[in-house]
Please model this.
Amino acid sequence: MIEEVGVPSIVLMENAARGACDWMLSRAEALGLSSGGTVGVLCGGGNNGGDGYALARHLASAGIPVFLIEVGDPLRLSQDAVINRQICMQLGLSMSRWPPAATHFGAISCWVDALLGAGFKPPLRALERSVLESVASLVMNSGASVVALDLPSGFDVDSGIAAPGALRADFTLTFGAQKVGFGVPGAVEWTGEVFVISLGAPIQPEMD
Model:
């Protein structure tokens, strides 16, 4: 998309976030958003985290309460993620480094997993695994939904194998096209229902 079609990466991030927001708003009741629930957005340091920041901005614009939870060092974010993080800060969106105060967790009816992207290869690092296992425990206790952006964190999209500590999603909003690993038997236990979000240009299948 970037190298061959010529769509700038920041535009792809915006299209992904807008599409994910539209999908979430269409499922607002099921995700607990129509009754005032907060979306907790777990942001990593790569472009997947940037998708999370951009999504939070769109959800806030639609009147949905959002709480951004940053994992890792914000000073090491990708360029596009830095831009979207800065916008969120300028808008005054609620934001905290991991781990946030426990009082923030009670209002979260839906978690957005924007921690790790398609470049992930097992195993999870110690901090990543600790965060994901903590979120999984919170989800189990609260009954909140988990929406993964592009893929569930800890899931290898090439092999279809989930690393120990990977986060199970109820829904995966994957960008541009289905990922190879989603078709592996058992993958659905991690991805939940998968929906493809358009990036704003058709993706041509590779030809032999």
In short: The chain has five helices and seven strands. The mean pLDDT is 93. The beta strands are 38-43, 66-70, 94-97, 108-114, 145-149, 171-175, 193-197.
